[in-house]
Design a protein that fits this description.
The chain has about 90 residues and is an alpha+beta fold. The chain is built from two helices and two strands, in the order αββα.
Length: about 90
């Protein structure tokens, strides 16, 4: 899935992985005994063009930019199903 990464990309990926591990430990201290295998980070950003019109963009980051698409789809579909369940039960 990914081409060779630059040193900057490797450092950024390592920092993101470390940050996610810290967030998991902070939010789920009693349930964080496993080894993190993959992750997906969804990002929404907004910018404005010269006419002041807002432009929204979405980005998706995966661990080392190398999560197979079938696994990526499964992870996002599962997360979507869990979120829909939480909404339905609220």
């Amino acid at each position: 899935m990914s081409a060779s990464r630059t040193p900057e990309q490797i450092a950024a990926d390592d920092a993101l992985t470390e940050a996610i591990e810290k967030v998991l430990e902070a939010y789920y201290p009693d349930d964080n005994d496993g080894i993190m295998l993959e992750y997906v980070v969804l990002v929404r950003s907004r910018d404005w063009n010269d006419d002041g019109i807002s432009i929204t963009a979405s980005s998706m980051l995966t661990r080392d930019n190398d999560v197979p698409v079938d696994l990526l789809l499964g992870m996002t579909e599962y997360a979507s199903a869990r979120l829909r369940k939480q909404i339905a039960e609220a």
